[in-house]
Amino acid sequence: MKNCMLAGVGGQGTVLASKIIAQAAMKQGLAAHTAETIGMAQRGGCVVSHVRIGADAFAPLIPKGRADVILGFEPAEAVRCLPYLKTGGTVVVSTKAVQPVTASLSGVSYDAQGMLAFLKEHAGRLILVDGENICRRCGSAKALNVALLGAAAKAGALPVSLSQIEETIREKLPERFLSMNLKALSAGAEAVTGGTDQ
Amino acid sequence: MAKQLVMGNEAIALGALRAGVGFVCGYPGTPSTEILETVAKHNPGDVYVEWSVNEKSAMEAAAGAAYAGARAMVTMKQVGLNVASDPLMSLAYIGVKGGMVIVVADDPGPISSQTEQDTRHFARFSKLPVFDPASAEEAYEMIGDAFDYSEKYQTPVLLRPTTRVCHGCASIEMDGSRKKIEPEGFRKDSKWVIFPRLTFQNHKKVEARQPVLGEDFSSYRFNEITGAGKKGIAAGGVSAAYAKEALAQMGAEPKFFKVATPHPFPERQALAFLDGLSEVLVLEELDPVIERELVYLCGKHQLPVKIFGKLTGHTPNAGENSTEIAKEAICRFLGLPAANEPETPLPPLPVRPPVLCAGCPHRASFYAVKAAMRGKKAVFSGDIGCYTLGNASPLDMVDTCLCMGAGVTVAQGLHRIEPDAVNFAFIGDSTFFHTGIPGVINAVYNETDIVLIVLDNATTAMTGHQPHPGTGKTMMGEISQKVDIAGVLKAIGVGHVGKADPLDLKGAVEAVKAAAAAKGVSAVIFESPCIAVTKPGPAYTVKEEKCTGCKRCIRELGCPAMVVEGKKVKIEPSMCYGCSVCAQVCPFGAIGGEGK
What we know:
The structure holds 2 protein chains of 2 kinds.
Chain A: E1 2-9, H1 14-27, E2 32-35, E3 46-53, E4 67-72, H2 75-80, E5 85-94, H3 103-106, H4 112-122, E6 125-129, H5 131-138, H6 144-154, H7 162-172, H8 175-194
Parallel strand pairs in A: 1-4, 4-5, 5-6
Antiparallel strand pairs in A: 1-3, 2-3
Helix pairs in contact in A: 1-7, 5-8, 6-8, 7-8
Chain B: E1 3-7, H1 8-18, E2 23-26, H2 34-41, E3 48-51, H3 55-67, E4 72-77, H4 78-83, H5 85-94, E5 100-105, H6 119-126, E6 130-131, H7 136-153, E7 157-159, H8 163-167, E8 168-173, H9 196-217, E9 224-226, E10 231-236, H10 238-250, E11 255-259, H11 267-274, E12 279-283, H12 289-300, E13 306-308, H13 323-334, H14 361-372, E14 378-381, H15 406-417, E15 422-428, H16 429-445, E16 450-456, H17 485-491, E17 496-500, H18 505-517, E18 522-527, E19 541-542, H19 552-557, E20 562-565, E21 568-571, H20 581-585, E22 591-592
Helix pairs in contact in B: 1-2, 1-7, 3-5, 10-13, 14-18, 15-16
């Protein structure tokens, strides 16, 4: 069994990314379960997707200490989910912080570098993805989710390969978003050699 | 057909279609909403689907369809069943002809609800059978079983999934078949007319049916006993899945009773489970329903078995369960060493409370009322919907929130005790139709001076944009006559009915002032569509040379698109919907839209 956790902020595209992993795994004949945050919390709140691949998953949610990989759509949300990471597990994280909407009101922003340092200290393997730069190159803020998939697949942290992810994207995504997402996927994969690879 | 990745709610819908459902209705509510939407999306053409005005209307309409012999399904969230409890209780005596399944989604946590009530109690209270799926896969099968049992016993049946089952996705083999049901039609008979005499006779039948159903359920395919030993674990719903996961981690296989039909309780099977046990741990969410049944059985049969659970403080009595909670309780119960490894403490993390979207017209409506009432004694009663989020600072415009439609009537009680305050009641368009109208009539009839603010964003926003009577669209894809909110208010005798566009702040403030000054019940309808159902306008920008960095826009509005960069304010272009409200609030004319 492989457990993948995706953590971000409402609107970042965690749900689509979790569906792509699940569907790519199903194409290999594997059983898939996912669980998402739906409802009030979506409005700017923390969102977490649990993806469980394999027939031996009973619970809909990944138990603590059992995630093989965490895909952090921003640093603090990756840290929030760290208790779910198994010993030696991989964290793939976008380095760009998403400040809470209350930050401008309270005047208190959080320190992304501190979060990344904490991840480096506690994750078995940390892969940093310059999400901001990739989104700029792909011309869309919506490129982040697929870029993170690209990095995680390239690092071998997903239950499916990079080419299996690509195949699923080609099948499931609408034609007009395809070139942007394929670009994001390879940009994410490139980040693996460039990132902190412990 | 191949395996598909489907959400639990989609599985229920597709299972109902497979079972030949012909009539589906309900009212939106997290976590139940996607069931009805999925039926509509996959409608083979012969299924009637509607969003009803509220759960009571839905329950009654579904009963009518089942009287006529159709297989009918009605969907709602747990608090919706409170609204529909009147028809539920009577229908339990009258029964049905066609299969009728009442799907009520419970929300342990709660994740997006105002209560942690347990629908299994409603099953006991109404003496109706209830099915409790442990997974999306099981829900897909169980909905068909529920229809079969409903027809076998000519009674409505409850299916009670919980949030994690509703919103979890699983790869499920769909067979794509559809049972053919040809409704016989309604046959006139005195059995459809509830009278005290009939109630007395049917009460006896219902009581006689309880043990028969319990016996039937004792061999029901999803109630199962596994494992062996002197210590047993009983679990229901998703807690059974958590318990199995925990046991798999521990490599333990104690005697295990999975309860899929908590009412009527499968007594014979439960006795087989209890046989030879000295202690039982019960894992379930919400209330100790299975636990009480087992305690009762032990008393009834004088069994020397100790039952542990919520009543004995061995499991949490509030919130949702998890594998960790199950594992910890099981380890303690089996006398195994501490289950969960200690966690590394995390650094302080940013708090992300949900907020009204950038460009949300509710923000402007709340701001206009706040501005109009500045310096006056006013109380703002809120209601259920996205606009409950108006309670957050800096708006701070929701002083009470109780249940659907309650803002209108709570305001009346407040006003009778403190008549010197201006009492506002905020209500959304869908909530107005749901249970708001009788409250307004109550104010008119009793001459209670309240100001009603209808936040008409032309959709049921919080649950994902469902149509309602004011939108003129139905789930059958047809266009119906729109029910006009202003017309309704005038017809029931509201003297002053104003209308305003909340995004025009000056006009909105004037409209509120006029309504507050009017004698008797008055109303302002703020008309501006939800940003999710309209195209964004061009984004606004801050003219850096004019921005003094006073941050009034941020302090007054709290729009998530506005951020501070250095000493100046910046508008995040990808988030801005161009509502223009910040430009109207800026005292220095530093915010402008396209060409301004």
